[in-house]
Amino acid sequence: MTSRIDPWSSQQYADYNRLRHQFGIEAFDPEGLPEPTKLFRRGVIFGQRGFDSIKRAIDEKRPFVILTGLMPSGKMHLGHKMTIDQVIYFQSLGAEVYISVADIESYGARGMDFSLTKRLAIDEYIKNYIALGLEPGQVYFQSERRAVKDLAFVLPTKINLSQMKAMYGFDGSTNMSHVFSPLVQIGDILHVQLEEYEGLAPTLVPVGIDQDPHIRLTRDVANSFRVYSVRKDDEGKWDADVGIFVKTNEDVEKHIDRAVEMLKREGYADCKKNYGYKAIFLKGVDDDDVEKIKVHLLELERKTNPYSFFSPASTYHRFITGLTGGKMSSSVPESAVFLSDEPEEARKKVMSAKTGGRVTLAEQKEKGGVPEECVIYELFVYHLMDSDSELEDVYKTCKDGTRMCGNCKKQCAGLMADFLESHRKKVEAIDETVLEKYVKWD
Ligand code: TRP
Ligand code: SF4
Question: How far is the centre of ligand 1, averaged over its atoms, from the C-alpha of 34 (Å)?
């Protein structure tokens, strides 16, 4: 049983429900999202933390941010595409886009030099993102963004070394630059909410499960800088609907008074102060009010504390299986389809991929294939087949033994080659003037 997730290992993950429960990740429900794309409809995105804040922003047409980062350690493959597919979708719903080139992390954790990561980031990743449909946003470099590095230094007063060791398995021999890199990622995720960037705004970070330790750490840090916490009176202890608590020990009365003033101004009249409990007890509010009050409290805090943030939200996607059955990895070229692969090369890789087919044709006809364990089927689900009914047809005919792997692979290889061919044309059309609309050199 995994007790820890290591963001820098090549570990594979299989049982997502178990992981979800083990780490307290909520299930993802695409219900109510406008025109959800295939990754959402098909359960490839299986988990979330705090997604309700994003959902509300979408429903109420309020500003929100989607942020991701990339470690330019090699060429971009289909596994990397899933994050950017989500970024593009949320951008179409109005999100501001931030993309961090994690050159400090690449340096600290992988020893890669800064000039190489810059070139790889633009040529191997950003151009592909644009060709996949990303509209202009902010692509920036960790090493060049002052605000990110400042936050990485300022916010970790709330984290200690034992926590870092327990979360990441760091020990006495870990180089300090590596120890520092998750702190820079906290800076990435939270800096967008500084006044000089987007200001207070719910922020979504789409990730694979390997990044969850960073997400938990960032959410913990954001919470630890908060002045107020809001709790519903579920057990009827306080003779109120909700209690608002002051978490610090300084200026308690001032914090309470200011919050009550704000609440009255917003029309919530029935509030009782209790300095002894460091609390305000509120009556006559429903769930919707509670959510609004939380946002008002955050805005109130922000007036005096620049480090008040919305706790960032995250989504978790399944990892795509490599063509050879293990992990899809840049360091194992035959396991991956790279976005820069020649269509012919990709066709060959697909034709030799591991399927869920039976040993003989006769057995396949009799028992049917196992799409759940088939890399080809996964490629249809994640990337190559937009139509749900067409996909359902593949599933059914595979199961009932009327579909044979040879033809099925040919269909897949054809779709893949077509995709790569048109993708390449789009990449080739990207020149400096296009890139300028995306990349901020700070
Ligand atoms: N750690 C991420 C990776 O290994 C890269 C990254 C850096 C990132 N900053 C981020 C991801 C912020 C999400 C959000 O791929
Ligand atoms: Fe996979 Fe297609 Fe073979 Fe079914 S028929 S196991 S989906 S390759």
Answer: 27
